[in-house]
Amino acid sequence: MTRIAIVVGSTRRGRRSELVAEWVARLAEKRDDAEFVVLDLADWDLPMFNDENPPALGTAPSDPQVKKWAVAVGACDGFVFITPEYNHSVPGVLKNAIDHLFYQWHHKAAGFVSYGSAGGVRAVEQLRLVLAEVKVATVRSQVFLSMFTDFSITDPSEPGEFHPGEQQEPALEGMFDEVIAWSNALAPVRVA
């Protein structure tokens, strides 16, 4: 069965990505056309990338935690990245997690669930460029959540409450459809 990772791309205290990931995972569990696993970067404790050689040279990671990360990513056929927008881009921890690996990302599909004051769309634009370099095919459909309409926030240092608008679930389902279809279509390329 096609295996899709839900990658939770923020690790900061008071993050909202945990609320979003719970919603995404809850809807993913209802599907029978793929197996979903949550890869929360807060659980990985990845060091900042500092290996002598870039992963593109085919060198194995030296850090034990990165080796485990490589196995987890390598076991997946596609990804749903959950990302906030930090300063018009993705959180450094997400970029770092991508940079640690190369071949494990190849010929897989990805979709995006983003959030921020502008729905996180600028973060996803940056993320699409990064993922293209590691040969991940990104689908067009994405879910972009507004801090003003999809969340109720009284204290900016706290996650608040997440109440996605009624248009968000169909958008997520459509993105799931595309990620699964593209992941399946790329399977022969991964085998080759």
What is the H/E order? EHEHEHEHEEEHH
Class by SSE composition: alpha/beta
Residue stretches low in confidence (pLDDT < 50, at least 5 long) are: none
- What's the Cα radius of gyration? 16 Å
The proportion of residues forming helix, as a percent range, comes to 25-40%
The biggest sheet amounts to: 5 strands, parallel
Q: Count of DSSP E strands? A: 7
Strand order, main sheet: write it out.
2-1-3-4-5
Number of helices: 6
Kindly estimate the percentage of residues that lie in beta strands according to DSSP.
15-25%
Write down the overall mean pLDDT. Answer: 96
Shape descriptor reads globular
Outline of the structure:
It contains six helices and seven strands. With 192 residues, the chain is an alpha/beta fold.
Task: Record the SSE blueprint.
Elements: E1 3-8, H1 17-29, E2 35-40, H2 64-74, E3 78-84, H3 92-99, E4 108-116, H4 121-133, E5 136-146, E6 151-152, E7 161-162, H5 168-185, H6 187-191
Could you explain the architecture of this structure?
By secondary structure, this protein is of the alpha/beta class. Helices cover 35% and strands 22% of the residues. Strands 2-1-3-4-5 form a 5-stranded parallel β-sheet, with helices on both faces. Strand 4 (108-116), helix 4 and strand 5 (136-146) form a beta-alpha-beta unit. The radius of gyration is 16 Å and the shape is globular. The chain starts with a strand and ends with a helix.
Which tags fit this structure?
two-stranded antiparallel ribbon; alpha/beta; globular; 35% helix; 192 residues
